[in-house]
Amino acid sequence: MNTHIDSLTLIEPGRLMLNIPVPMRDGVNLSADIWLPPSSQGNGPWPGLLLRTIYDNQEARYISWAREFTNRGYAVIMQDCR
């Protein structure tokens, strides 16, 4: 499995990683934002939710959802679709 997470820096608060390229098998990279629970909830592993959208994943409603779920202990990945 190819992962780019090892080289990323997590940013507090919200522990957010932006514009992570996720390679597809046809060579296309889809951008994803990864939200992790606050560090007060430990270092994982956590249950996760994958939200995919053809719209801007930085819309207020998506950010609100990510904050709500991370505060409840979930990791959230918001990925752009083709």
What does this structure look like?
This protein has one domain (about 5-80). It is globular. It has a four-stranded mixed β-sheet with strand order 1-2-4-3, with helices on one face. The chain contains one helix and four strands; from the N terminus they run βββαβ. About 15% of the residues lie in helices and about 35% in strands. It comes from marine metagenome. This is Xaa-Pro dipeptidyl-peptidase-like domain-containing protein. One of its GO terms (molecular function) is hydrolase activity.
Keyphrases for this structure?
82 residues, alpha+beta, 4-stranded mixed β-sheet, 1 helix, 4 strands, 33% strand, globular, disordered N terminus, Xaa-Pro-like_dom, hydrolase activity, Xaa-Pro dipeptidyl-peptidase-like domain-containing protein, AB_hydrolase_fold
Summed over residues and divided by their number, the pLDDT gives a mean of: 80
Instruction: Tell me the helix content.
Output: 10-25%
Oligomer: single chain
Unreliable stretches: 1-13
The SS-based structural class is alpha+beta
Reported for the largest beta sheet, the result is: 4 strands, mixed
Give the total of beta strands: 4
Order of helices and strands: EEEHE
The tally of structural domains comes to: 1
| Residue share in β-strands | 25-35%
Q: What does the overall shape look like?
A: globular
Q: Gap between N and C termini, in Å?
A: 21 Å
Strand order in the sheet with the most strands: 1-2-4-3
Radius of gyration: 13 Å
* Tally of DSSP helical segments: 1
